Amino acid sequence: MKKLVLSLLVLACALQVSAKKVKFAVDMTGIVINTTGMHISGDFQTEIGLQNDWVSDSTSLFQESADTNIYSIVVDIPAFRLYEYKFLNGDQFYEAEFVPVESRVGYNFDDNRWLYVDSLGDDTTFVGNIVFAANAPANLFLLRSLVDMQNLPAVDPAGVHLAGDFQGNNPATTYLYSFTPGIYEVISYMAAGTYEYKFYNGNTSGAAESVPSTCASNGNRFVDVTKDSVMTPYCFSECGLCAIGINEYAPKIAYSLYPVPAAESTTIEFEHAVAPVQITITDQNGKIVRTYNGFAGSKMNIERGNLSKGMYFISVKNYSGERLLQTKLIFE
Asked: What does the DSSP 8-state code read for residue 175?
């Protein structure tokens, strides 16, 4: 019996050490609340005692007070993990919010919100009262900051961080998560204004990048926040995209791409007809937005379709996985 009690105490202590309080909250101002109440669903629900994750009717949000439209819940869940979630105005999945693109996980067509719990501090992780189906808390904007670390020999075991005047210039508090190799990102919320910041390969002041003077203000990067924004993943310690990797590869087949930039379509033409290849188009975050399998020939027209204005990357691989070329594609 003593051994059983001791084992239970050890287990309880272990769970307490690994757990972190996280507050999820949503602002429902101006929205009629469903009679079944507000709920949240996500991949953290088994961690709070439910049998399954992504259950729509089992995790209620509670109105914070009679004179507020904020609904919230505080949960204890393991730290050092990524969580995905959505708010529901009701208790069925068809009543879930439509998460704006800027806030989504965004990779492999994942349209959930996301949060990385990066500490075991005694405080409560809380990003703010996010407006239902919007990007940020009221009167604030979303800023999704990205950095490309692929040119560094290694990423510090402490992880990639950001420090700026919108978070106290503390390199130890804002951890960036990597959904795709080499690219690290974090979502912050702030009022309109101009802000300075740096990326850190680690979590100490000595781990800061050296920002070139051509893109620096007071030795820092800077951004004007006037709307919800997703930043370009510029190379660590550089002003532009990394010279190796998603930028350009030495082509193994001769080709031409025209016109550049393109308005509605562009054509890629190979010097000689190619055997069946896979052609993919990715955005600047590394997300695949278009795939063409089994192309064989010497010329291919790529329609813009639903692609937004901006820079993309065309990659051509044979079916043994060898990259034959990668180049930029710009739609204006």
From this structure: B
pLDDT tens digits along 224-236: 999 999 888 889 9
115 has pLDDT over 80: yes
Q: Which of 282, 284, 287 is nearest to 235 (CA)?
A: 284
Contact 141, 227 (CB under 8 A): yes
d(CA 69, CA 138): 12
The third-level CATH classification (topology) of the domain covering 255-331 is: Immunoglobulin-like (2.60.40)
Helix ranges (DSSP H) in the chain: 2-18
Q: Which residues pair with 146 in a beta bridge?
A: 185
Q: d(Cα 164, Cα 195) in Å, to the nearest integer?
A: 7
Tens-digit pLDDT profile for residues 73-98? 999 999 999 999 999 999 999 999 99
Does the domain at 141-235 match CATH 2.60.40.10? Answer given as yes
Q: Give the domain ranges of the chain.
A: 19-131, 141-235, 255-331
**H or E stretch at 230:** strand 229-230
Using DSSP, state whether 300 is helix, strand or coil.
strand
> pLDDT tens-digit profile of 32-67?
999 999 999 999 999 999 999 999 999 999 999 999
Q: What is the mean pLDDT of the chain?
A: 88
For the chain, give me the number of helices (H) and strands (E)? 1, 21
Residue 47's φ and ψ, nearest 5 degrees, are: -70, -20
Rounded Cα distance, 215 and 221, in Å: 7
How far is it, in rounded angstroms, from Cα 38 to Cα 78? 24
* CATH number belonging to domain 19-131: 2.60.40.10
- Two domains, one topology: 141-235 and 255-331: yes
Return d(Cα 50, Cα 149) in angstroms, integer. 38
